Amino acid sequence: MNRDQIIAAMRSTLDKMKAADSEESFKALQGEYDDLQKQLARIDAVESAEKMLADSLPVPEQKDSGDADADADAADAYEKACKSLAAAARKGFNEGTPADGGYTVPEDIQTKINQWKTVGVSLDDLVSTENVKTKSGERTYQKRGAGQGFSSIKEGGKLPKVTQPQFERIKYEIEKFGGYMFATNELLDDTDANIVGTIIEWFAENRRVTRNRLILAGLNSKYTRDADPETAKAISSLDDIKKIINVDLGQTFAPTTKIVTNDDGLQWLDTLKDKDGNSLLKDSEKDPLTQYVSIGFRRVPLRIVPNEDLPTDPESGIPVFIGDFRESVRLYDRNAMSIMASNTAAVGTGEDAINAFDEDLTIWRGLLRLDVEPLDEKAWHKGHISPASSAANAG
């Protein structure tokens, strides 16, 4: 296209951008407009070079009016020289080489910090949480066990002794978790991006990951402890899950049971069908974002944790937790996450030492204080969907 055609196309594209009814359409048109701008810039660069080279050529020497042939030859030579130099300019000026015209083409560079889409799943609401005021403590629970009932007493007979309830204690010990980040003060002064906001969001993300990690460690605790660890149950069909709920959890926990698994577990559950070929995985009528699994007469809520947070083990298979998690694990929260900034603090040791005052930095520190402990070990069970079972269903 020539200059006029490009300008006309730019006007037409701009009108379409103004009338765009969606963000996707607008971005597509904006890309077309940017391409047209680059084409126009190339034409400007070539025309400028042609003019510069033409101006630098010597003007042909004037001949006598009678020497028509000499004038024609000179004019022809002049025209050929202009065309030759213009062709060289077109070849030499290009967008890809900065010094050969590339500097004249604007680049679309954004300083705004964009973020990839992620799913920040928090497990805080899955378990019970208690805010505490001290570094450590104990909670007293009555041990599980049914009474033996009263004995029959004859008239005037003595009352027999009944069995007494037994008690046990659950201890917690608050731990501190944290880390720091820093940035140069020049960066904070000169950038137009919200660096501070990004740092605070990053601390919040680390808080979520830390709490999730501790909660999952609590759910794994009875399977990883040194003394008398339990064995995770093998799951190869819906009947295995049904037995865990109906028998292993029983009527104490079955009515409030949930299933927690990862993306791979969701895929496996989504392949299960009833006798009519309908999926057993359904959306809640009250909340379309909430899913449940139809297991017999029960509707068991489902919580999905991304594979990045709850990975599948290549050997044992897909992890599945089943139970009443509010009775399974408790998070003891000493205080909310604290974030502090300083331009005079010193952190680290040796080669990693940083002095904010000497190096003209600002340092941010994030701290958490909490503990996660298992409660009632009968309230939940862990299973693994074997790689063979998941592969068979996937096929």
Number of helices: 9
Q: Tell me about the biggest sheet?
A: 7 strands, mixed
Rg over alpha carbons = 37 Å
What pattern of helices and strands is seen along the backbone? Answer: HHHEEEEHHEHEHEEEEEEEHEEH
**SS elements, strand count:** 15
Q: How confident is the prediction overall: mean pLDDT? A: 83
Domains, number: 2
The chain-level structural class is: alpha+beta
Q: Report the portion of residues in β strands.
A: 15-25%
Strand order of the largest sheet: 5-15-10-6-9-8-7
Helical amount: 25-40%
- Unreliable residue runs: none
Gross morphology is: elongated
- Give the N-terminus to C-terminus distance in angstroms: 53 Å
